[in-house]
Specification:
Distance between the termini: 99 Å
Number of strands: 17
Oligomer: single chain
Number of domains: 2
Largest sheet: 4 strands, antiparallel
Number of helices: 17
Helix content: 40-55%
Shape: elongated
Length: 588
């Protein structure tokens, strides 16, 4: 059944909002993860326990470099495996794999189809048992030719269990139509994690099939002190009890196995793909994979990374062009630098500003209201605390800017103290207030019409948890889509005053550079077409600002951001020179 009209636009708007929220913190997330992984790796290298040991107390690898190995891979529904005679359980066998040799002969692969049993379809388990042995030696302990020092193995689950997506508690506030029921069912499967995190029902677990199994033998011949191996290596060492030496480390590499590649298991599944690969891995690469995964877990525990963001970060490295990815990382760092400089100069401008002549005070108030709406929307959608803290700080700063643009007084005449706002004399005593009121009057008509249309569309075709959520969602959508309209009153004031000397151009320059960087992200990052087009809306406003700066001459009589004009500076300089001459005369 076809979805209601305009559903594609609805999905694009929702994805655009999510992209708008996450794009700003994307570069910070990459930098934080890489920094933590590198720091953890080198810290474990340099600050691991170093106990003085004699050469006889050092343990080493039982196998030598380039030593040929045979491999057997069995699958079983039991975690413990000893049925080596079962040919049906053996799905892969390779001979003469050179250990820790980098070349095509040391990497083997196989793709096959696996037919699950009925037990596996109903939340059953399946394990992969891999065994390596020196060429000519069997892995079966019951075989007469078995040699304990010549064989080793490891077990790894092929089926993983993830919590079932919670039912989406959002609903159509006007009642579901027959067409919207279908859209709601699909959304429960795809976006079910966006519902309420509080649920009284027990968590249901669903089994998923891992289509890729990558087996890596770590290239490690380090001689470790006995009982004093580095903490990042010790949990993975397979030590032989009689000699104290260790077997080669087997690493089941799932770093690039994304969650969307997992296949859910149920009674309708008849066959499953299974891609097998065996090969070497360097010690450094193995440790980097482990530390990055650990840093992801730390970020999730602190709330600075949501579920699924780690996979999205890996997807950028998997599907992106390496050169384009490098450029994107450099540009992301520049974006962070320009964002910080814009923030710094914005604070400096409003902290030192003494006059509101030529500045739109209403735009400052509207900017605070937009920031407050975004903060409440993030709070209603269970966003991570780091994003909430960043939005909350921005909201406080916008309110502080209102105090610099207007007089804020506390009225205690009534039972409840109220805040009262009064225009500053430099704003109300000239044409600035008149032009600002005129611009906001006509723009408010356009904005209210757009807000009303967007809210009605959201009420008819989107689902919400409550009327409060609908109000926040509608207002947030309007902030993201039509927020650039709030920059237009300043353009109108500039036009009427025929001057731009009152603007904080240093801050605006940094913001313009950030806008150009956002344009680059619009081509690099996958996003809906609607959001990609909305990225370029700020460019038009900034280009108009630049055009106004070019056509309007510098007015020396217009006060600058410090509350002084060009004539005042000249008078001040003359007074300083006269005072200096008087001092010299007194000294002489």
């Amino acid at each position: 059944m076809a979805p209601p009209p305009g559903t594609e636009g609805q999905v694009q708007v929702q994805q655009g909002r999510q992209q708008q929220q996450q794009q700003g913190g994307f570069s910070q997330m990459i930098t934080g993860v890489i920094r933590m992984a590198v720091f953890w790796y080198f810290a474990s290298k340099f600050f691991s326990p170093k106990t003085p040991s004699e050469p006889s107390q050092l343990i080493s690898n039982l196998f030598h470099k380039a030593e040929p190995l045979d491999m057997w891979l069995y699958v079983s529904e039991h975690e413990k495996f000893n049925d080596f005679g079962n040919e049906q359980a053996l799905i892969w066998h390779e001979r003469n794999i050179p250990y820790a040799v980098w070349g095509p002969e040391s990497t083997r692969s196989l793709s096959l189809k696996y037919y699950p049993s009925e037990a596996l379809k109903h939340n059953g388990s399946l394990y992969a048992h891999v065994f390596f042995a020196r060429s000519g030696y069997p892995p079966d302990p019951n075989d007469p030719e078995y040699l304990p020092l010549a064989a080793f193995g490891r077990t790894h689950p092929v089926v993983t269990y993830l919590p079932k997506s919670r039912a989406d508690k959002r609903k159509s506030l006007l009642g579901n139509s027959k067409g919207s029921d279908e859209v709601e069912t699909v959304t429960e499967v795809v976006d079910g994690t966006e519902g309420d995190s509080i649920d009284d029902k027990p968590v249901e677990w669903v089994s998923y099939w891992k289509p890729n199994i990558t087996i890596n033998l770590v290239d490690d011949f380090t001689r470790y002190p006995h009982n004093a191996a580095p903490p990042n290596v010790a949990p993975y060492l397979n030590v032989e009890p009689s000699t104290g030496d260790y077997y080669p480390t087997i690493f089941f590499n799932e770093f690039w196995l994304l969650k969307d590649k997992l296949i859910p298991l149920n009674e309708t599944v008849t066959e499953l793909p299974l891609n097998l690969e065996v090969g070497p891995i360097s010690m450094t690469k193995w440790q980097i994979f482990l530390q990055i995964d650990q840093s992801f877990q730390i970020h999730r525990s602190y709330g600075s990374m949501l579920e699924g963001e780690a996979d999205e970060l890996k997807r950028v490295f998997l599907e992106g062009n390496p050169y384009l990815l490098a450029i994107t990382m450099v540009v992301s760092m520049l974006h962070s630098v320009f964002d910080f400089l814009a923030f710094k100069n914005d604070i400096q401008f409003w902290n030192k500003n003494k006059s509101m002549e030529g500045l739109s005070a209403k735009s400052v108030i509207v900017s605070f209201l937009c920031q407050l709406i975004v903060f409440l929307y993030l709070l209603d959608n269970d966003t991570s605390w780091m994003i909430l803290a960043s939005s909350g700080i921005g909201c406080c700063i916008e309110f502080w800017k209102i105090g610099k643009a207007m007089h804020i007084e506390i009225d205690r005449s009534g039972r409840i103290p109220m805040l009262r706002f009064r225009d500053r004399e430099s704003y109300a005593g000239n044409k600035t207030k008149e032009y600002d009121d005129m611009a906001m009057k006509y723009l408010s008509y356009v904005l209210f019409l757009l807000v009303a249309c967007s809210s009605v569309y959201s009420l008819m075709y989107e689902r919400h948890k409550s009327w409060y959520s609908w109000i926040l969602s509608s207002l947030t959508s309007c902030v993201y889509m039509f927020g650039f309209i709030m920059m237009c009153p300043q353009l109108f004031i500039n036009y009427k005053l025929q001057s731009v000397a009152h603007l904080p151009w240093r801050q605006m320059t940094y913001k313009f550079l950030n806008t150009i960087i956002d344009d680059l992200f619009a081509f690099v990052i996958k996003m809906p077409t609607l959001h990609r087009l909305s990225v370029f809306r700020d460019d038009i406003i900034f280009l108009i600002y630049v055009y106004q700066r070019w056509i309007y001459p510098v007015d020396k009589k217009r006060v600058n951001e410090f509350g002084f004009g060009g004539d005042d500076d000249q008078v001040t300089d003359g007074a300083e020179v006269a005072a200096t001459n008087e001092d010299e005369k007194k000294t002489n």
